[in-house]
Design goal:
26% of the residues lie in helices and 39% in strands. By secondary structure, it is α+β, with helices and mostly antiparallel strands. A hairpin with a 3-residue loop joins strand 2 and strand 3.
């Protein structure tokens, strides 16, 4: 029997430049099993079951302050449920992931 993996994630507009690069690096650092697919105009970033994006991690990779509201400017879509989004982190997961 084959078990399918349920991924969550987001599509990021590559016109976001260094912000998108920092977001992807932060996601890769803070989550296991991250896959990034490059479609030139956007990058699909996905992780199995749950993805956390931490403001502090983005700031480390960006080398500057980062406001989590800036995610709105570069995220064209998300798949999974956004279960938490505040000034410190964004969590996307399937509600029954646990």
């Amino acid at each position: 029997m084959t078990v399918k993996q349920a991924y969550v994630g987001m599509d990021l507009d590559t016109s976001g430049g260094s912000i998108v690069t920092a977001i992807i690096a932060a996601i890769e650092e803070d989550n296991e099993g991250v896959i990034v697919e490059d479609f030139h105009v956007y990058k699909k970033v996905k992780a199995p079951g749950r993805m956390v994006l931490k403001r502090e991690s983005v700031e480390e990779h960006l080398g500057a302050d980062f406001d989590m509201d800036q995610v709105h400017l570069v995220m064209s879509s998300a798949f999974g449920f956004i279960t938490d989004w505040d000034e410190e982190q964004l969590i996307i997961e399937w509600e029954d992931a646990e």
